[in-house]
Amino acid sequence: MSKLLESYAAGRWYTAPDEGTPLLSAVDGSEVARISATGLDLGEMVTYAREVGGPALAKLTFHERAAALKALALTLMAGKDEFYALSTSTGATKRDSGVDIDGGFGTLLSYASKARRELPNDTVYLDGAFEQLGKKGTFLGQHVYTSRRGVAVQINAFNFPVWGFLEKLAPAFIAGVPSIVKPASQSAYLTELVFRRIIESGLLPEGSVQLLSGSARGLLDHLGGQDSVAFTGSADTAATLRAHPNVVGEGVHFNAEADSLNASILGSDVEPGSEEFDLYVKQLVTEMTVKAGQKCTAIRRALVPSALMDDVIAAAQARLSRVVVGAPDAEGVTMGALASIEQRDEVLKSLRGLTKSAQIVVGDPDNFDVVGADKATGAFLPPILLRSDDKDATEPHDIEAFGPVSTVIGYDSTDEVIALAARGKGSLVASLVTRDSALARDIVLGLAPFHGRVLVLNRDDAKESTGHGSPLPVLVHGGPGRAGGGEELGGIRGILHHMQRTAVQATPDILTAVGNKWVTGSQRNDDGVHPFRKNLAQLRIGDTIVGGPRQVTLADIDHFAEFTGDTFYAHTDPEAAAANPLFGGIVAHGYLVVSLAAGLFVEPNPGPVLANFGVDNLRFLTPVKADDSLTVTLTAKLITPRSSADYGEVRWDAVVVNQDGDPVATYDVLTLVAKGEDA
Known about the structure:
- The protein has about 675 residues and is α/β, with parallel strands linked by helices.
- The strands form seven sheets. It has a seven-stranded mixed sheet with strand order 14-15-16-13-12-17-18, with helices on both faces.
- The two termini are about 55 Å apart.
- Helix 3 (about 80-85) packs across helix 4 and helix 9 crosses helix 10.
- The protein has three domains: about 1-125 and about 150-215, Aldehyde Dehydrogenase, Chain A, domain 1; about 260-480, Aldehyde Dehydrogenase, Chain A, domain 2, CATH 3.40.309; about 525-670, Thiol Ester Dehydrase, Chain A, CATH 3.10.129.10.
- The chain is built from 20 helices and 26 strands.
């Protein structure tokens, strides 16, 4: 008997007492492993996540969690050869395994990098600027994101046993929420191997990740309003889970990614033989054959101008004729097996439905060659392309054959192709191949309400494009309607899915304390020591320096205009400037004001401040005229140590006022400041 997969629950590996269900190789039908969760205490897993994993993650800042993810990704990448070797049993070629395995590790690295760059080195995230709720500025509002005190349950599909769980794990982990990973049984042996290496690494806090190998029946019974479920799979299963009493009545957060009849559109401006035509056909064939077409983002409907249907089919046939089906590790094989015999049979069943209104024009499911394996025992199918000439047919827009199957459908107008794409009732992705910008606008805006992502492809972006079927960590992955109505990934958005947004109403001082970011109106600290003489360990939020006044003369304005070449009439032509209703005379350059302000607060000697690396949110509010006097107040607003460097970032609030106290400029100054011993 083969190995019985284990679950990792409540800090230990758990082996079920029964023999489990056999998991068979997609290539030859041999037994790869067995799976069972019999006797596993699912309630204990949920409790352990909440009481052990959650508190452990809560002690870490966003940056510390990101550092752990980065270290984990690098560790897993160093040992990926064993994952590739086992991946062949799922039917995956080396190219397929790269999409799944390297794609998963790359997602961890992407989230780690995104979190370090865009999130504070803290456990709370501020959503936007504060809102002034009273006239005097003593009563403010601020939206804050904090980690939910629950568990993120991840129910994954069979087609991506590595990427599928890592793309859900990464944002939840950064958000400070522990995860329970439930892989689809068919390919769970690969998930279990990767997960075992995660636990062995010791890089993630105990309780922050757990693995459920086997049935999840009853798991949702233990969830409540602080918990979430992220599901990838069929629409029927998603509907069943969505109707669970705890989802309906207890407020369990539910996100689904379900069936999707994705479309790829060939623009009406494209001619046979052009680069765009070749790009379209190449992309279609790629999406039919990568992972044997078992991708939720694969192209199921190829929408092409009616006059070009024959050309597209002929070009696709030429490419598909070069596809070699067989054992993933056999020489020359370019497309492997489907995940299981059962999955192959499901595709054949769907194919029978599609042929009610379409005809097979490329590929024969009953007559094809297999290299290095026996198609009687392996889950093999050839790439199959259909043609539908019936504009009223429903099957191509209703039936998804989750394998190497796509249907070519003709259209005769822009409005018609948009309507055809929308008949999929909501999809994860659509693509459009065109160089016509006006056409692209019309189609993109027509597609957008029905799709989570739209790719516009042509010769100008082809070399850098990641393709129709590649969800990216920094962009949202999901879609409306039939596609599940959910949303995953999306960079920081994916992290915030796991956090609670709360509106806090309070005084400026309280909001400063809650968010660790200085808020206008809260206390400033001027202790007589120039803030630029303080290292990161000594500096405190609210530390302030006031510089000025400094009179701006007409000679200053003339010199700045001559020196910089900025001779805009408002700075150089008294008569024209006087006619300008906004100025009424010569005014100083905005950047002259900023430059003079810097001279009022900069401490010139070498010290902890290493560099100025930018200015954010610059606004010029009141024109500065000759002989006006400027005073600047600079306040430490946000302090962010960098974990991987001996310095950190400091954001300073800068306000420049004139002699009447009117603000003339506001902005944030960004500096790099050396750490002290305790920073």
